[in-house]
Amino acid sequence: MRTLPIIFFGSSEFSIYVLKEFLKEDRPILVLTLKGKPKGRNLKIQPNPVFEFCLREKLNVIEFENWENFKTSLNLIKPLAGIIASFGKIIPLEIIDFFPRGILNVHPSLLPKYRGPNPIREPILNGEKETGATIFLIDKLVDHGPILKQEKIELLGNETYLELEEKLGKLGGKILREIIVYYLEGKLKAIEQDETQATYTKKISKEDGFLSFDENYEIWQRKIRALNPWPSTYIYLKTRMATNKEQMATNKILKIFKIEKLEEKNLPREILKKNVGEFFEIRNDLGLRLKDIFVILKEVQLEDRKKMSGREFLNGFRRLLNIN
To answer: In angstroms, what CA-CA distances link 229 with 78, 120, 188, 235?
Structure first.
C-alpha cells in the first residue's frame, strides 16, 4: 500500500466510508478530524468515529484545535494535496494555498445540484430518480470548484439516509482511488461547474421532522427515510396529565420510524369511516388514517420511552390512542 503526500480531512461516518475505500490502495500521510462531542446523560466526551477508526487502522491522526496550530503541521509535513470528505468546517483560503495541488472534496451529490449541508437527505425528500458522488477542487465558495470526476447511481425510492450515506461514501472513495495518482501527476483536467444548474440545500432542524396530516403518504415516506435517525420524524399525541386540581392537556412526541401502506379494498367499513389522524387496530397492528391512505405504524418511540414495534405500542398505550 502506498503512502501518498496527502492530508485527509473528515469527521463523520461518511468520511469513514470514503477512507475505507481509499485505503484499499493508498494511505494519507495524515488525517485531521474534529474533536469528539459530549454525549449521554453525563455528557462525557465521546471520541470522533474517524479518530477511533484511524487508531484501529494505525493511521496518523490529529484532532483539530485551530488553523494556526494546523499550519505548524503543514510546514512539517509539506503535503502535496488534501482530501475533504464531510470535515465539518470551512477551510480558509490561506490553508488551501498551502497545498501545491489544492484540496479535493468528495461530495455526495451530482454537482452543481445539491450544494451545501444536506446533499444526501434532500434528493430523498425531493423524490429524485438519481444521485451520485462528485470529486471537485475546492475554492473560496461553497461546493463551487471545478469537477474532476463524478458518477451517477439510480435511486429506487426506498433508500434511507443511512443506506444512501454508505452507498455514496463507498462510491466517492472508489472514484477517489481511481483518479488520485493521475491527478497528482497532472494528468487529469478539471471542468468548471455549470452555474445555471446549481441548486442549494439547507440546514435541517428538529422542526423539519414534523409529520403533518396535511401531507400525503409519499411525503411521509420520504421524510421518514431521509430524516432518521436525526432529527427524527414525529407527530404529537394529546395526553391528559393529572395535577392536584385538574387535568391538563399536554402534547407528547411520538417518533415514527417505519410505516406500511394498507390496501383500502381489504379494510372493513368501520375503519374506512375513520377521520384523518385517527388511530385504529387491525389484525393486532396499529393503524393510522393519513390524508390519502391508511397505514400501519411498524416502528415507533414515545417521548421518554424506548423504541418499539407499533404492535407493542398498541398493547401498552391503547388508552393514549383512544382505541377501545
So the answer is: 39, 13, 38, 15
